[in-house]
Design goal:
alpha/beta; eight-stranded mixed β-sheet; 9 helices; 26% helix; binds iron/sulfur cluster
């Protein structure tokens, strides 16, 4: 347990947490919505520091980040807990463990050990992923600072619900992020995730303004967020921020509490990808369909094949110093 960062003490031994946009006011003896931050006698503590539930060496393509050191390894960690309760969560066994089972598991792992393991595995990055890094912010921040000082970059795979204070605190040592934009409707966020859309949009804007490399993922769920008008809204919003933001549209498979909806038809993914291009985005990808042509990076200037992938494997990378070898256009991303 560790005293939390970013909270304030209120009257009556209450506290207000400022890590995410729920901004929970927590009574003495209670926990916040995420279930991993507890008020003990007027002090907010993290219950997951430093309890690492998962650590793996992943290809960075798995995050997914396609324009950030392609072909490199990413040392990936998580604790249990999440500030969302998505009915379609693919990692619900660990993200919802505190709320569904009242348990907090994990192996005590100091930030120095995480960085050591990342260096030993020749990982270029540490990814804070699988669950929501905002709710284990103390561990992420302590680790990220040490990692950055040792030349290891840090990336968040996040639902984007952190506050501006939280993002600005870690931003100097946060080099990239993949943020879910799960839908473009307040109703979807409220009913399917227990959250709100607008704070996520603000986070995306802030990341772009701070210069954090950003890629965005939308899990395409039949009947819930796949209307053409909604996909156009997402693509238009992203293109308005920066046309070079890669947009990943992933295939849904029935899971957790959403088992009555069928998997996304491949044709829907392809149509969503076309919509992304029609709305002005330069790089739109399909995910969870190994072998699909939507895994490839084609130059936005001339259409040249730049990076060929199969699943998470890079089969060919023709980029030259981040530029297209055919037409010379600079391709947005972090390449070295
Ligand atoms: S991180 Fe947890 S306790 Fe803090 S505001 Fe978000 S849900 Fe509430």
């Amino acid at each position: 347990m560790k005293e939390a960062y970013l909270y304030e003490k209120l009257d009556g031994n209450k506290v207000r947490c400022s890590l995410c946009n729920h901004r929970c006011v927590i009574k003495d003896g209670a926990v916040g919505i995420c279930g991993v931050r507890e008020n003990t006698g007027g002090t907010l503590t993290s219950l997951v520091y430093p309890k690492v539930i998962a650590r793996h060496v992943d290809p960075i393509e798995k995050k997914p980040l396609f324009h950030f050191l392609p072909g490199s390894r990413s040392y990936s960690i998580a604790t249990v807990g999440c500030n969302f309760r998505c009915v379609f969560c693919q990692n619900a066994d660990i993200s919802q463990m505190p709320r569904d089972r009242g348990q907090i598991w994990g192996e005590d792992t100091a930030p120095e050990e995480i960085v050591w393991d990342a260096l030993n595995s020749r990982s270029a990055t540490i990814a804070y992923t699988y669950t929501e890094p905002t709710v284990y912010f103390e561990l992420a921040l302590d680790t990220a600072r040490i990692a950055a000082a040792r030349g290891v970059k840090n990336i968040f795979v996040s639902n984007g619900y952190m506050t501006g204070e939280c993002l600005r605190e870690i931003h100097p040592d946060l080099h990239g992020a993949n943020v879910d934009l799960k839908a473009y409707s307040e109703r979807f966020y409220k009913e399917q995730c227990g959250a709100k859309l607008d704070p996520v949009l603000r986070t995306l804007e802030t990341m772009v303004n701070l210069g954090v490399w950003l890629e965005v993922t939308t899990l395409l769920i039949p009947g819930l967020n796949d209307a053409e008008s909604e996909l156009r809204d997402i693509a238009r919003f992203l293109a308005g921020l920066d046309a070079g933001i890669p947009w990943h549209i992933s295939r849904f498979h029935p899971t957790y509490r959403l088992t009555t909806v069928h998997a996304t038809p491949p044709g829907s993914l392809q149509r969503a990808r076309e919509i992304g291009y029609e709305e002005g985005l330069q790089y739109v990808y399909t995910g969870n369909v190994p072998g699909d042509e939507g895994e490839r990076t084609l130059c936005h200037g001339c259409g040249e094949l730049l990076i060929d992938r199969y699943g998470f494997a890079v089969r060919k990378n023709a980029l030259r110093d981040g530029s297209c070898p055919a037409c010379g256009v600079k391709v947005p991303g972090v390449w070295a």
